[in-house]
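Predict the 3D structure for this chain.
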Amino acid sequence: MKIKLYSAKTALAAVMLIITTMFLHSTSRAQDETQHDREVVIVLDCSKSMEDVDSQYLAFDFAKGFAASLPRNCRMGLIAYNNGICASVPIGSSSTEIEKGLSELRYRQYGNAGAGMEAAVALFQNDQAEKRILLISDGEIMMDTNDGTVQADQLFEQSVAAAKEKNIVIDVLAVGERIQDGYTVYSAADDTGGALYEIADTAELSAYIVKYLFDEWGTRGSHIGKLDGTAAELTATLPDCMMEKVKILLIGNQQNENVTVNCKAGRIDMSKGRRYTVIDMHAPVSQEVNIQMYADKPMQVDAYFFAEYSFRINTGHFYEEDAQTAHIWIEISDTEGHSLMDGHLGSGAMELYLDSEKAAYTISESKAWIEKVYSQSITAQIELRFLDPAGNYYGIHEAAEEITVPIAEEEPDDTDWFFWSVIVLFVAAVAAVFGISYRKRRGQQTIRRQVADMSTTAQVENTVPKNDFCGKIVVYVIHNKNDIDYPPESINLFARCRRESITLEWILDTCNLPLDLKGAEKIIFKPGADRSLVIKNNSRASVLIGRALLTKGQSYNLYYHEKVTFIFDQEDAEIEVHYKDLKPNER
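Done. Predicted structure below.
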């Protein structure tokens, strides 16, 4: 907010209030979507002893100014007491009703703080709201008799305990000098987790309006300048004209000065007391507000500003299938459908979070746009956060958008199955002819066995092998836990193996395959009869030749053009070893 502050050179001779109004919005409003989340009751000590510390009734002035300054998420009630309850205004009453409840009161009689606190606790109805009592008192509990004083004190303690039970925090604003003897109200703050403020001069009470609004309750607002002297002027520029209401609080010594407000708005209301002025501007039209104040005695006034927005979120998206990207749009509008993006929100005064992560966005067509890649349908979670230091936004800050990812349609099958069936049959016939021819050439040289040859096993394990390694093996890594693709590796056993036996671990190392497979050292290969390999599995791995599972501890023969599969469940790995004959040029 830009501020221009300067002293007026001339004083107006008469009281004037210039309010130029312009109605651009209909009077009907959508119902407030935001629940009231704070309830406060001011409990005012109206006993005769209060007159000694507050002869100007500035405690009354504070209660009126406090009621006029509250944001819309706070509802207020009032209890005033002396011998008994002398005023009771329910929670949710307007500032006008609060002022009317105090209009006929004077400081008189004694101070039955017990009756006042009991009545205040009874006013609270909303269990979900944050509840607080502001007790303004000189601190003394006293009746006309000693018994009456004791009873009032006991009732006070019982009512404080009841407040604590209902999670009602009690702040004590103790005016005047602290009372050291007798029955007092000070302990209520400590007993309920509240604060005790000792205020020597009741003129300081008006500052607690600002303290509670901005410091204690976190209402967003800004200090926009001062008006000092007998004549002063302040010009403020609003961030936009999209807000539902603007409040300007003038806090400080004001006396009976004249106030002039120049601006354009749907309606302007003003509440004025000894040490406060609250200017309510509903649906402002002009962004510039000019305030002039004149008085016979010097003023010392601080000006504060806060705005209230009502908003709704509407979301949608379209999905770009080729890029697998959802283009999500967020529309933020007031209750009449006007986009808040057309105001200062469109200049970066907000943050958007998508699926709990801060998202970059662009503004187009009065909407915020976010892009994100989604490969499957999901419910996207959107959160809106406002950065406006003086803007208070009422509405639902979160939204969910159903992102629907289209299912890819299968391409129509244009295969000529008759043509390919003929080709397959032809290839199969040719393969059969070559197979028969190959078998005839090999004669009886190759004896294929998938079961254990016990005689060969005994011979291999108990005597020095009479056979040599022949052929070659090709190693295929079918699967591994890191999903790394390894090319096939081969070993010429005929040329490289001059040993009695080898293990699967040796084969993997020789092939430079960095697979750490537990038990690979317990899988043994030895040369067998008829140029076969004898395999013995002593590990926990599963070993298969074709579909036959090898029994642990038994020996099996593997012949040319056969393969053996090793499955290591714990390492999530699968290895195939193919046993092949050597070509003439490979010998």
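The first helix runs from residue 58 to 69.
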